[in-house]
Amino acid sequence: MESFSFSTSHFSLPSPPPFSSSSSSSSSNRHPPSISFSLNPSPFHSSSANFRRPTKPLKTPSSNPNNKPPSNSNNPLKPNNPFSPPSPNPLTDKLWLTSKLSPPPPTPQPQSIQETRTPKTKDDDNQNQNDVVLDNIDNNNSNTSPPRQPGKIFVGNLPSWVKKPEVFEFFRQFGPISQVILIKGHNETNRNAGFGFVIYDGGETEAESSAMKAVEFDGVEFHGRVLTVKLDDGKRSRDKALERERWLKGDGDGKGEYRSKWHEERDGSRREFQKILETEPENWQAVVSAFERIKKPARKEYGLMVKYYARRGDMHHARQAFESMRARGIEPSSHVFSSLIHAYAVGRDMEEALHCVKKMKEEGIEMTIVTYSIIVGGFARVGNADAADQWFNEAKERLTSLNAIIYGNIIYAHCQTCNMDRAEALVREMEEQGIDAPIDIYHTMMDGYTMIGNEDKCLIVFDRLKECGFSPSVISYGCLINLYTKIGKVSKALEISKMMKMAGIKHNMKTYSMLINGFLKLKDWANAFSIFEDITKDGLKPDLVLYNNIVSAFCGMGNMDRAICIVKQMQKERHRPSTRTFLPIILGFARAGEMRRALEIFDMMRRSGCIPTVHTYNALILGLVEKRQMEKAVRILDEMNLAGISPNERTYTNLMHGYASLGDTEKAFQYFTVMKNVGLEIDVYTYEALLKACCKSGRMQSALAVTKEMSAKKIPRNTFVYNILIDGWARRGDVWEAADLMQQMRNEEVQPDIHTYTSFINACCKAGDMQKATEIIKEMEASGIKPNLKTYTTLIHGWARASLPEKAFRCFEEMKLAGLKPDIAVYHCLMTSLLSRATFAQSYIYSGLLSVCREMIESEMTVDMGTAVHWSRCLRKIERTGGELTEALQKTFPPDWTSHHVDVNSETETADPEIADDDDVYYANGINNNESDDEDSDIDM
To answer: Which of 179-188, 829-838, 846-855 has the lowest mean pLDDT?
Structure first.
């Protein structure tokens, strides 16, 4: 602590004018110019931080024979009591003005006074001197009567919420009250500490009488509390006086201030708080507990707490700490304001961050480059490059110079929006100003080029990084791995991985996750699991993100049980599964049609503490839609609404697809209208479901109206939309409309796929134009598209319908030569068509039917009962009695087949069924179904 220097000229002033008791009130306002440092004239502020005690005790006037001590009657700062003992320090009466606050204490014994005024002059006894002085002060206070104020009582066990008016009204019944003092709590300044004092008014006798009456009510109930009421013993005033005397005396060595026990405890808790911040920042409970142990935290501690919450992105607690600081009367600095703005920036609430900036400017606090960097970085996180540019330009105008941090933030903002030209210009501007780019800016540029898929420039930045003397880190190599996994070059990503290992750099969890994601995109499950094994070999503990990827890999393989085992392993390792963890499992079971197990996982997710999202409900609805259980799907929708989760576009689109599969156009249009009313975005996938419903029910005019609405909203028709429309016209046998749609696809440069060609071939077959169908087959092969099972099945159906069974057999043989294995749909189509048109005279058809039956028997294929009855009736045209074909054909019938299922009355035999009657079975087996594996995204969540 710095000492005060007193010049002799400060004390060599003319003696003050005569002073009398009658003029004491007027002269007390005039401060004698005997001291050069300034003090607050009010005695209540004498403990201000502006006061500094002298290093050494001032000598008393009696110890200096050259100076005559002034008389007490002429000193306005001392009481007019000739028996008043002089203080150990002559400044005591001048600073505290005890004679103005309360009557002087009784005269102590002269021996005690002499002991307190007898200093020792030896330098090696300085410590003993101060110990004796303090001991004598304690003895004086204990021997004399307590300096209590008459009429003052202590009130304890008060409710913490009670205010002064309630206490005043209660104790007023015993006498007039001069003052009510409630002691405030340290942590909650708006509440009392549970005790206080009441001072009664009037004369000394009257006040004391009122106090005695109040004390008689000790133990009275007051707002549910039993009060403690007793006369004030003056201990609080005595402790304060003793603390002041000790503070004036210092710590004994003449160098430092006296530190009370309270101050020592607070300093210890401050040091402990800073230590925990440095050593255990991840243990937020320990940090908060250490902060709460500090009694009356200062601006520094509050600033550190706001900064801690800001780094965690906890903007609500950061604001709470900030407002608590202000409630204690501590004004925030630029650093504290910047920390609060940082909390909102990390929490992506830039609106509130700007509100803090506005408040900061209103209070006249200057914004520093740190503040501007935080704001620019916050807008970069939310992808608002324009706002980031605006604040960056303001920083350039108001600040004399910028640094690499604010440049890095604005470059990151433009890289996130893929504006690499602007990012390159900023890098050039930074270099022209002589600011060296740190390695983080190189990584930011590499990440930006990765987002736009520019491999060449990303490699240029990586090479430049090494040329500038930087050693590539795991982040540098991770940027390249991320680049190659995103553009689908996983093999090159593996080469970068090998380069890392050769450079002695080990993978971290992020680089491993990138590699696994790359293999998952390629559906290369084996390599994805090999990477997972490498992680365990390196001794790394998988995190939540990696576990989620592994769960997705097992679900992609269809191994749902292993995925569930991974979830249980996560829970054992104290990783809390998220909704994203359970979503692929629920979706996998739903797609497999195992809705019972999907609902079990849904319940398991809830028990794990995960709140279902709209995507989770969409997965359940999708599974029920694919099983055509629309009533249960609608119940899931109702459950969503009860849970307060609003359905999105995918929810209603999935339901529309379900009703479209059933041909329920009315329900499909109903949910389409709901989407419009709710204000959800209607995209091409929604229109696909609506068109599918129209075409399935044969309402082609409604389908045309839907396509016109799509054109009005400028929604382009993709391949799937054309497939649905062509299939709709094919069902009606309108080859001209189907051909017109094919021409429109060519004009709009929409590439046909295998489903497009198959649907068009079906239209040609139904129209009987098999020549056109043959041309389409050649066009397909010329485009590099090979016919699949559905295509061959459609052709077989067409040739049989055209009464050309030999070409149907030839097409069947071509299919087998192409390496395709016939399924039940092919056999069903071929046998139904041939049996309905064969006669006993056509021996080659007879032998062909027999060979097909034997193939079905070898493949252990059986048909349903309805098909068996139909085939049995058609068989009577060839064999009136049981024969070889009848025996072979009946082996493909169901096990419970008996001859009484057939109506043997020849007069009731039905006419030859039309091929169109087979369409239900034909399409039920998936022929010409446009929902291919590639269309999974159409009804995705």
So the answer is: 829-838
* Contacts of residue 469, Cβ cutoff 8 Å, sequence gap at least 6: none
Q: CA-to-CA distance for 838 and 879, rounded, in angstroms?
A: 11
Q: Are 373 and 408 in contact (CB under 8 A)?
A: no
Q: What is the DSSP letter of 863?
A: -
pLDDT of residue 109 exceeding 80: no
* DSSP run (H or E) holding 193: strand 192-200
- How far is 557 from 921, CA to CA, in rounded Å? 30
Q: Residue 477 and residue 471: Cα distance in Å, rounded?
A: 11
How far apart are alpha carbons 706 and 669 in whole angstroms? 11
End-to-end CA distance of the chain: 70
Residues 6+ apart with CB under 8 A from 703: 691, 694, 695, 725, 728
Q: What Rg, from alpha-carbon coordinates, does the chain have?
A: 47
- What residue type is assigned to position 56 of the chain? K
Residues 644-670 pLDDT 10s: 888 988 999 999 988 888 888 888 898
The percent of residues in the chain predicted with pLDDT above 70, rounded, is 76
Tokens representing residue 938 in the block: 């159409």
Average pLDDT for residues 542-547, to the nearest whole number?
A: 84
DSSP string, 593-618: T-HHHHHHHHHHHHHTTPPP-HHHHH
Q: How many CA atoms does the CB half-sphere of 538 hold within 13 Å? A: 16
Nearest by Cα to 683 from 660, 658, 652, 704: 652
Rounded to an integer, what distance in angstroms lies between the CA atom of residue 511 and that of residue 845? 64
Residue 941 above 60 pLDDT? no
Instruction: Supply the pLDDT for residue 927.
Output: 36
What's the CA gap between 418 and 935, in Å, rounded? 29
- Give the contacts of 622 (CB within 8 A, at least 6 positions apart): 587, 590, 591, 654, 939, 941
Check if the beta carbon of residue 730 is closer than 8 Å to that of residue 928.
yes
**Helical H segments across 195-234, by residue range:** 204-215
Q: Which two tokens stand for residue 215?
A: 């004390």
Structure token digits, residue 561: 């049980």
Q: List beta partners, residue 198.
A: 153, 180
CB 94 within 8 A of CB 51: no
Q: State whether residue 199 is helix, strand or coil.
A: strand
**Rounded distance between C-alpha atoms, residue 651 and residue 668, angstroms:** 12
Sign of CA dihedral 626, 631, 636, 641: positive
Task: Please check whether residue 852 is in contact with residue 859, taking contact to mean a CB–CB distance below 8 angstroms.
Answer: no
The rounded distance, in Å, linking the Cα atoms of 304 and 762 is: 74
- Residue at token pair 């009694």: 295
Q: How far is CA 673 from CA 668, 676, 694, in A?
A: 9, 5, 15
Per residue in 155-204, pLDDT (tens digit) is 999 998 888 999 998 898 888 998 999 988 766 667 888 889 999 988 88
At residue 25, the pLDDT reads 38
Give me 741's structure tokens.
């749609």
As a dihedral over the C-alpha atoms of residue 813, residue 818, residue 820, residue 822, rounded to 10 degrees, the angle is -10
pLDDT (0 to 100) of residue 17? 45
Closest to 601 measured CA to CA, from 642, 572, 560: 560
Q: In this structure, what are the phi and psi dihedrals at residue 244, rounded to the nearest 5 degrees?
A: -65, -45
Beta bridge mates, 448? none
Q: What confidence score (pLDDT) does residue 847 get?
A: 75
Predicted confidence at residue 307, as pLDDT, reads: 93
CA 808/CA 801 separation, integer angstroms: 9
Q: How high is the mean pLDDT of the chain?
A: 77
Q: What single-letter DSSP state applies at residue 179? A: E
Does residue 516 surpass a pLDDT of 50?
yes
> Over the stretch 20-59, which tens digit does the pLDDT of each residue have?
433 333 333 434 433 333 333 333 333 333 334 444 444 4
pTM of the complete model: 0.55
Instruction: Give the separation between CA 688 and CA 524, rounded to whole angstroms.
Output: 31
Nearest to 696 by CA among 719, 727, 652, 650: 727
